[in-house]
Automatic annotation (TrEMBL):
<keyword id="KW-0378">Hydrolase</keyword>
<dbReference type="Pfam" id="PF00128">
    <property type="entry name" value="Alpha-amylase"/>
</dbReference>
<protein>
    <submittedName>
        <fullName>Glycogen debranching protein</fullName>
    </submittedName>
</protein>
<dbReference type="InterPro" id="IPR014756">
    <property type="entry name" value="Ig_E-set"/>
</dbReference>
<dbReference type="GO" id="GO:0019156">
    <property type="term" value="F:isoamylase activity"/>
</dbReference>
<dbReference type="Pfam" id="PF02922">
    <property type="entry name" value="CBM_48"/>
</dbReference>
<comment type="similarity">
    <text>Belongs to the glycosyl hydrolase 13 family.</text>
</comment>
<dbReference type="InterPro" id="IPR004193">
    <property type="entry name" value="Glyco_hydro_13_N"/>
</dbReference>
<dbReference type="Pfam" id="PF21156">
    <property type="entry name" value="ISOA1-3_C"/>
</dbReference>
<dbReference type="InterPro" id="IPR048650">
    <property type="entry name" value="ISOA1-3-like_C"/>
</dbReference>
<dbReference type="InterPro" id="IPR013780">
    <property type="entry name" value="Glyco_hydro_b"/>
</dbReference>
<dbReference type="GO" id="GO:0005980">
    <property type="term" value="P:glycogen catabolic process"/>
</dbReference>
<dbReference type="InterPro" id="IPR013783">
    <property type="entry name" value="Ig-like_fold"/>
</dbReference>
<dbReference type="InterPro" id="IPR006047">
    <property type="entry name" value="GH13_cat_dom"/>
</dbReference>
<keyword id="KW-0809">Transit peptide</keyword>
<dbReference type="GO" id="GO:0004135">
    <property type="term" value="F:amylo-alpha-1,6-glucosidase activity"/>
</dbReference>
<dbReference type="InterPro" id="IPR017853">
    <property type="entry name" value="GH"/>
</dbReference>
């Protein structure tokens, strides 16, 4: 057994030192002290800077002796430190030549990219001291959290129902009904677990929770004077550290335990946790941005640079991480392994993931090393990997993202196709593909329906209520003259732009929302719903609320009472999906009867049974799923029939006949008024006329045959 030698060999200003271990990177507790390890290819010297917690000036600055370098790693153990009251950073010296890509400046104190806790933004929204010589301060963490035998849930992908949320927005509104100090925090989500369970979702996808600076690019709103912030957090300061401002205990440095407690409680209640991770760029921005960490440590290694030394900007935010450099690939792998192992995270959604497949000059790689490494990593083997399969540089890879049998995709084509169908554009051929889990995109390469993360709304773009209330975006409050945010919303305001007292328009809008969730929950693949859509949340037509810490983003919990019928409909549709394995197939439909039931696994219908209208102008479509062809490993299911009429007139739909002794029952009819628009699974009433039904204008009906 190797003996660990803990004896110091050097002293500096009373501090006892010895050459450290180069691996792992970061600041890690070792017997008797702390091991500091940091990499730089081009630095000529490195100095460790230690602060007492919150101190303005350093406690001590300790240069790394030359003999404390191994390869390109500076590593040193410092003994007898009061690590709980310590903050640390580095000064790096080396060449400073813009065209050659070097930004070394020993006057700047740099944050450790591997810092597990970061101070300096401990409480949300507290204006920083702009004269501070060191803004984002690495801290040392001692992990003694009791997980009580918790482990990731490993819910089969096809059984997932994802709820995308923003940590602060979910409970920040005064109407949330939780104690004030928990509002807008990890603890606040924990208080709302009963709500998530009642809704029925079994995975939450958290918008970025890594440490970021909400004051990045902050500015007054030209209309109101209110401060606009970096609210969504898609601009990472530190990849390993949870956001202190998202913790009720952040000012005490307890954000690690608060987040772990939330994850443990979600797991106890059968809910997975997926993190939205941003490895395509950092908060250091372009040539005019701040030097926080990577730029001052090894700019040429960490970022994609033009031959003239400028930053490539495939992210749309100023810089692009050089993800397929082996060193950068290493930090991404180390980061995800850390979150999977130390935080029991169930999966990751990768923002602008197409960037992760570009070479150092921006060209798409045929076999991207990072994506392959993530797919085959042994520690991440059970984690869900979800790609936003496009980037701001124009690379769109939905259906062609390098998957290695592991990667799922946010299916932007699902969103676009269903939205167009809902507003009456026809396109039934495209809709049929989306309903089946997009076999046109995934079956050819052997990828399962669960590859497709189906969504109609997400944090980017309109909420579901706004999708049916606005023809165009209304982003004036962002201070960018309504030029930001997408113009391609495929939305329809149902006859009036914005809020109205018109009963007919409001009734149609609610029906369209129910149509959307009904279609989403009977589609093969993985459904994802946006926080608040289930209770009719609005952002008043703003489709890019990235900068607002106010009621444009906060979820108004008064809507739960106001729109109780919407919540009930969502809840019933989610429960129906869970009750019927035929809606959650592991493999794509074969369009044939391979179980000998007398029916193919899926059959298509129109206003007449067995006769779908596939013409470009068609606004009606129906399909039936045979329960004997249910998901492998499950008992025989019922038959499901779904009829969709997006025409502005009612139509009679003839029904396919069932086996003797079976009857069609009505689970949902969006054309009916609440409470008769949906039923609890298992309590569906028998349909009066078993040969057909009248489907109202712009309505969806779901029948169950048993």
């Amino acid at each position: 057994m190797e003996r660990i030698d803990v004896h110091p060999t050097h002293t500096y200003k009373g501090y006892k030192l010895r050459c450290g271990k180069p691996s792992p990177f970061g600041a890690n507790l070792v017997p008797g002290g702390v091991n500091f390890s940091i990499f730089s290819s081009y630095a000529t010297s490195c100095t460790l800077v230690l602060f007492e917690k919150h101190a303005k000036e350093p406690l001590v600055e300790i240069p790394f002796p030359e003999e404390f370098t191994i390869g390109n790693v500076y590593c040193m153990t410092v003994f007898d430190l009061d690590y709980e009251n310590l903050e640390y950073g580095y000064r790096m010296d080396g060449p400073n030549n813009f065209q050659e890509g070097h930004w070394f400046d020993k006057s700047k104190i740099l944050m450790d990219p591997y810092a597990k806790v970061i101070g300096g933004r401990d409480v949300w929204g507290v204006t920083p001291d702009w004269n501070d010589i060191y803004h984002h301060r690495g801290k040392i963490v001692f992990d003694d959290f009791d997980w009580e035998n918790d482990r990731p849930l490993e819910i089969p992908p096809e059984d997932q129902i994802i709820y995308e949320m923003h940590v602060r927005s979910f409970t920040r509104h005064p109407s949330s009904g939780i104690k004030e100090k928990h509002q807008g925090t990890f603890a606040g989500i924990r208080d709302k677990i009963p709500y998530l369970k009642e809704l029925g979702v079994n995975a939450v996808e958290l918008m970025p929770i890594y440490e970021f600076d909400e004051f990045e690019n902050s500015r007054p709103n030209p209309q109101t004077g209110e401060m606009l912030l970096n609210y969504w957090g898609y601009s990472t300061v530190g990849f390993f550290a949870p956001k202190a401002g998202y913790a009720a205990t952040g000012k005490f440095g307890m954000q690690v335990d608060e987040l772990k407690t939330l994850i443990k409680e979600l797991h106890k209640n059968g809910i997975e946790v997926i993190l939205d991770v941003v490895f395509n760029h950092t908060a250091e921005g372009n040539e005019r941005g701040p030097t926080i960490s990577f730029r001052g440590i090894d700019n040429k290694t960490y970022y994609m640079l033009t031959p003239e030394g400028y930053y490539y900007n495939f992210s749309g935010t100023g810089n692009t991480l050089n993800c397929n450099n082996p060193v950068v690939r290493g930090i991404v792998l180390d980061c995800l392994r850390y979150w999977a192992a130390e935080y029991h995270i169930d999966g990751f959604r990768f923002d602008l993931a197409a960037i992760l497949g570009r070479d150092p000059w921006g060209a798409p790689l045929a076999n991207p090393p990072l994506l392959e490494s993530l797919a085959f990593d042994p520690i991440l083997a059970k984690c869900k990997l979800i790609a936003e399969a496009w980037d701001a540089g124009g690379l769109y890879q939905v259906g062609s993202f390098p998957a290695y049998g592991r990667w799922a995709e946010w299916n932007g084509k699902y969103r676009d196709g269903i939205r167009k169908f809902l507003k009456g554009d026809g396109n039934v051929g495209d809709v049929a593909q989306r309903l089946q889990g997009s076999p046109d995109l995934y079956a050819w390469s052997g990828r399962a329906p669960a590859t497709s993360i189906n969504f109609i709304t997400a944090h980017d773009g309109f909420t579901l209520m706004d999708m049916v209330s606005y023809d165009g975006k209304h982003n004036e409050a962002n201070g960018e003259n309504n030029n930001d945010g997408t113009n391609d919303n495929d939305s329809w305001n149902c006859g009036w732009e914005g809020p109205t007292d018109d009963f007919g328009i409001n009734t149609l809008r609610r029906r369209q929302i129910k149509n959307a969730v009904a279609i989403l929950m009977v589609s093969q693949g993985v459904p994802m719903i946006l926080m608040g859509d289930e209770i009719g949340r609005t952002k008043y037509g703003n489709n890019n609320t990235y900068c607002h810490d106010n009621e444009l983003n906060w979820l108004d919990w008064n809507l739960l009472e106001k729109n109780a019928d919407l919540f009930k409909f969502f809840k019933h549709c989610i429960a129906f999906r869970k009750a019927h394995p035929v809606l959650r197939n592991q493999w794509h439909f074969r369009n044939c009867d391979y179980m000998g039931s007398g029916y193919a696994d899926i059959t298509w219908h129109g206003t007449q049974a067995w006769d779908a209208d596939w013409s470009d102008s068609s606004l009606t479509l129906a399909f039936m799923l045979c329960g004997k062809h249910a998901k492998q490993g499950t008992a025989e299911d019922s038959y499901i029939y779904v009829a969709m009429n997006m025409h502005w007139e009612a139509h009679w739909f003839g029904l396919p006949g069932l086996h003797p002794g079976m009857k069609w029952r009505v689970f949902a009819n969006t054309g009916a008024t609440s409470p008769h628009d949906s039923w609890e699974p298992g309590k569906e009433p028998v349909l009066e006329n078993q040969s057909g039904l009248l489907l109202g204008d712009r309505s969806v009906v779901i029948l169950v045959g048993k």
